[in-house]
């Protein structure tokens, strides 16, 4: 599988497995199945409440830890210097590992209604300082952010020592967040796509159905091919073995320039409604 070199030289597999909602015994089985299907890059988060299941699946697979690329994320309710250090230890303990490949700030702001909602600038820079220290101690191979728009990155980077390696954003046909992608890339930050299939909300889009038919592939696979051709790192999630395998083949298909352009110019579609500055934008 193709790997991408991050700005600190660390290599990351371009196709990862998303583990959102893979909880309890079922979640463990699904993640183990994904590993058996060939995934070595796993995306989890404290918020998903499945770090224990992901760690167990990694161990039970019998494959050495160092063959995996494991990402976890600091929840938005735990921003701040001390909280970040403590949450990181909890994450490692739950995963049953002594290092992370990638640690991300999950969202730039506490949730709407949190007393610290307007204190995000200070909290983000404190969390980042804690993550920089953990990175410099060799406990995390790369550090980054998720759902950071230009204003959030600008604040984070104003006094930082380490440039984020990754910005993980919602990206799929119909929701391309061009400004955030361009801003990240101009600073050497690689872009990862969450919900790269649009959580199946795009399956009935007539344009995507037409183009997928032309290549004799599913709309889901078309979305993934499109994402890869835009040089995004993708984190598709499926609970079905055959779809897990199908999604791993997304790099074997080339979408023609004219079709890419048509998908690029689609109206906004399939957006989850989740926005980093929740008080200003409603779905
Ligand atoms: N950073 C963040 O804030 C954030 C937010 C959300 C998600 N994420 C990450 O991104 C990952 C992926 O996002 P997601 O889980 O929201 O959505 P997604 O991967 O875009 O879509 C998942 C949906 O697509 C279906 N699907 C997958 N492959 C398919 C195929 N080949 N054919 C037809 N249907 C297919 C799945 O159904 P079946 O299971 O039935 O196959 C499921 O309903 C998450 O698991 C998580 O790791 C990050």
What's the overall average pLDDT, rounded? Answer: 96
Shape: globular
Unreliable runs: none
* CATH architecture field: Alpha-Beta Barrel
The total count of helices amounts to 10
Instruction: Work out the strand percent.
Output: 5-15%
Run of helices and strands? EEEHEHEHEHEHEHEHHEHH
Strand element count: 10
Pairing-aware structural class of the strands and helices? Answer: alpha/beta
Looking at CATH, the homologous superfamily is NADP-dependent oxidoreductase domain
Q: Tell me the domain tally.
A: 1
Largest sheet: 8 strands, parallel
Helix content: 25-40%
End-to-end distance, in Å? 36 Å
Topology of this structure?
Blueprint: E1 3-5, E2 11-13, E3 17-18, H1 24-37, E4 41-43, H2 51-60, E5 69-74, H3 81-95, E6 100-105, H4 120-136, E7 140-146, H5 150-157, E8 166-170, H6 178-186, E9 190-194, H7 206-215, H8 219-229, E10 233-234, H9 241-248, H10 257-264
Parallel strand pairs: 3-4, 4-5, 5-6, 6-7, 7-8, 8-9, 9-10
Antiparallel strand pairs: 1-2
Helix pairs in contact: 1-2, 2-3, 3-4, 4-5, 7-8
NADP nicotinamide-adenine-dinucleotide phosphate (NAP) binds at residues 18-20, 43, 106, 146-147, 168, 194-200, 218, 220-221, 235-240, 243, 246-247.
Short description:
The protein is of the alpha/beta class. 39% of the residues lie in helices and 15% in strands. The chain has ten helices and ten strands.
